[in-house]
Amino acid sequence: MTGEWQPSACILCECNCGIVVQVEDRRLARIRGDKAHPASQGYTCNKALRLDHYQNSRARLTSPLRRRPDGSYEEIDWDTAIVEIAEGFKRIRDSYGGDKIFYYGGGGQGNHLGGAYSGAFLKALGSRYRSNALAQEKTGESWIDGQLYGGHTRGEFEHAEVAVFVGKNPWMSQSFPRARVVLNEIAKDPARSMIVIDPVVTDTAKMADFHLRVRPGTDAWCLAALAAVLVQENLCDEAFLAEHVRGADGVRRALRDVAVCECAAHCGVDEELLRTAARRIGTADSVAVFEDLGVQQAPNSTLCSYLNKLLWILTGNFAKRGGQHLHSSFAPLFGQFSGRTPVTGAPIISGLVPSNVVPEEILTDHPDRFRAMIVESSNPAHSLANSAACREAFASLELMVVIDVAMTETARLAHYVLPAASQFEKPEATFFNLEFPRNTFQLRRPLLTPLPGTLPEPEIWARLVRALGVVTEADLRPLHDAARRGRHAYTEAFLTAVSTNPTVAQLLPFVLYETLGPTLPDGLRGAAALWGLAQKTALTYREAVRRAGHADGNALFDAILDNPSGVTFTVHDYADDFTLIGHPDHKIALEIPAMLQELAKLSSGPPRLTTEEFPIVLSVGERRAYTANDIFRDPSWRKRDAEGALRVSVEDAQALGLADGCRARISTAAGSAEATVEISETMLAGHAALPNGFGLDYIGDDGRTVVPGVAPNAQPHVAGHLGALVGLQVGAGTLEYLPQRLGDAIGPGAVEHLFDLARGAPVGVALQRAGDALPGGDVTALQSRTDGGGRPEFHRLVEVRQRGGRAAAAVALVPRGRPVRRRSRASVGCQRHLASSSIATATARQRCLICSQSAGASASGPWSSG
């Protein structure tokens, strides 16, 4: 009701802090933290207060859309859309097999409930393969977790004596309840310590007792040194290792061979500082560790996941107050399906296809390629690496359907677009339930009725299943009747139906929606799937559920329905941690041979990410005060950093002649984009950073489309093993990153977001022209460009190299007044490729070594002279 404070939750990060909202004229007029929420307890960050920019975005969809042959879209009614989509997927299934239908998504940071219903439709079609953003971010850690103890762990930072953050800035990215409150408590307590591993002086690093400021991409050497000190200085908890761990001896042997002094030199951290930090970990009563995307999307990401877990396992900081814990889950975030993808043979980890091989699984004539795709509440054409390849792949599909609240970059490639109700117009929930010892869950009630023309995802999926005709009324009638008689009768009827009717057993979310859903309180039909999850939770964590006050699954489900601010669904004892270990002996399996092999390789030092000419590394995806993935499309939600500034160090700014607020052009082999420069003392020399969540188009107040900031995935950097070409242009000069192969040992779908970037004098560029053979060896040519007054503005030094029969050119732009460094090579170029100025001496060939035209001739083609 208008004017009343109604409970809900923030949808912008995995915390999903409880909020209360006053609604006026379909606007989320006032928002504040919900003190009744059992986890966040009234806490919220600044981002939650801006949620109306999501709810009332101009990008909202209000009708199903069908793509015309010319690429435009026409509105169609729901009945037509459902029938045509169901028939289209049946045709794909019958022609090629249901496993050629690929599913991506399932919900963002705040909407997982709709995705729970997708499974019924996919199973009815025989679809097997799926992926989502977790495959791009978290599968490396998930694989390590599975090997070590078979589940996910979370640190109890509220009580930890020492908190360790690896590639994580929780002051800005939150990720655990009451993050800033907890960080302040640690920082102000002289008996507690905070250790931050990060190349940037982040907000959290400023609070830390130990800031291990690694060089970008060298986290593995820092972590290896810390773990090695624990072993070499006898700081391990030997009693814990003997009783609760197997494989510790092999790990000890490997760490005794680690040269701490060499690791310190490689990562750029003072050796004594590393040793002191390790001793602090080794002597603390409790240690909690958090790794995040800063290291999970960097070189050696999977090895880093392993090494940071050694810190708390070797010191026995498990199953104790303030330590690391396995925890209950209301619903699994990862699946059990493994194997390899049908075309590329990439490993499927935690049930997810590596997201960055998706284009390769489509753009092929392989008979097992994906032919159709469903995208739900996700935007892979924007968020996956190499957006151009994604767009090409998605456009080639025989059928693509997108379910979303907005006309996203991905939706514009679909054959059909189905408009979903917003997260505040339907019952909704998330399964980021990661806390210990008290774990919580919240079912959010709708604050508003669905926008006309939209439907909640559970209803969309139910209509699609009905259109397939796989379930009859006779299948559902016993459950309909039982639901009207109450929970106990329904439970008995449901168990009977599942055991005797294979169709019901296969389509459980749909069955619950159709039979139990109509009996739920008004507006909560979409919560029916939670009944099944409540039963499973009560059986899996029987005693912990009872400690939380719920006698059984039905009691837990009713508590969820009756408490809109959320409930505590499990309360564990610390000793329960050992029962949650997934191995039969309930011991941690510490030795992972593949990881110890990678650890040994660190002795050769880190691969050089830069060269003398190109010494700046760019990190992409930094969390800032006003970034929120791509949930917000309306840029006006940002009170500052509206363009997503490129942060550069003071030293690099001075060397390049940059000033705060100047514009920089980001250039690649595929195109270019611009960014505003922010000079920051938080950045190391040779390191620059761009934020996440930018580059989304939006219709402004004047009706024109605007695209604030940079969409880094629009540049052709892809999964680490494929390398990258990305660049930055400053004024008259251009900087561009060289391709690197940064894949780690396991490489389960992680994108490596570190690339070479040139700086200084000269400011450099790297370009690659694939497929063109060079007629000769290395050459160098010098070119100048004049400013408006006819004076030289900059010189352009072009070096063309023969590399495996393919042309590669490095182009350095030297600002006026700085010396030009020439190589002793012959120089040649046509007017197009070395345009309009002083071309140095030509070779006897008198041919441009880029396009083979006569030197001085004009040329056409993809290589421009600008």
From TrEMBL:
<dbReference type="InterPro" id="IPR009010">
    <property type="entry name" value="Asp_de-COase-like_dom_sf"/>
</dbReference>
<dbReference type="InterPro" id="IPR006657">
    <property type="entry name" value="MoPterin_dinucl-bd_dom"/>
</dbReference>
<keyword id="KW-0560">Oxidoreductase</keyword>
<keyword id="KW-0408">Iron</keyword>
<dbReference type="GO" id="GO:0016491">
    <property type="term" value="F:oxidoreductase activity"/>
</dbReference>
<keyword id="KW-0004">4Fe-4S</keyword>
<dbReference type="GO" id="GO:0046872">
    <property type="term" value="F:metal ion binding"/>
</dbReference>
<protein>
    <recommendedName>
        <fullName>4Fe-4S Mo/W bis-MGD-type domain-containing protein</fullName>
    </recommendedName>
</protein>
<dbReference type="Pfam" id="PF01568">
    <property type="entry name" value="Molydop_binding"/>
</dbReference>
<dbReference type="InterPro" id="IPR006963">
    <property type="entry name" value="Mopterin_OxRdtase_4Fe-4S_dom"/>
</dbReference>
<dbReference type="InterPro" id="IPR006656">
    <property type="entry name" value="Mopterin_OxRdtase"/>
</dbReference>
<keyword id="KW-0479">Metal-binding</keyword>
<dbReference type="Pfam" id="PF00384">
    <property type="entry name" value="Molybdopterin"/>
</dbReference>
<dbReference type="InterPro" id="IPR050123">
    <property type="entry name" value="Prok_molybdopt-oxidoreductase"/>
</dbReference>
<keyword id="KW-0411">Iron-sulfur</keyword>
<dbReference type="GO" id="GO:0016020">
    <property type="term" value="C:membrane"/>
</dbReference>
<feature type="domain" description="4Fe-4S Mo/W bis-MGD-type">
    <location>
        <begin position="3"/>
        <end position="59"/>
    </location>
</feature>
<dbReference type="GO" id="GO:0043546">
    <property type="term" value="F:molybdopterin cofactor binding"/>
</dbReference>
<dbReference type="Pfam" id="PF04879">
    <property type="entry name" value="Molybdop_Fe4S4"/>
</dbReference>
<dbReference type="GO" id="GO:0051539">
    <property type="term" value="F:4 iron, 4 sulfur cluster binding"/>
</dbReference>
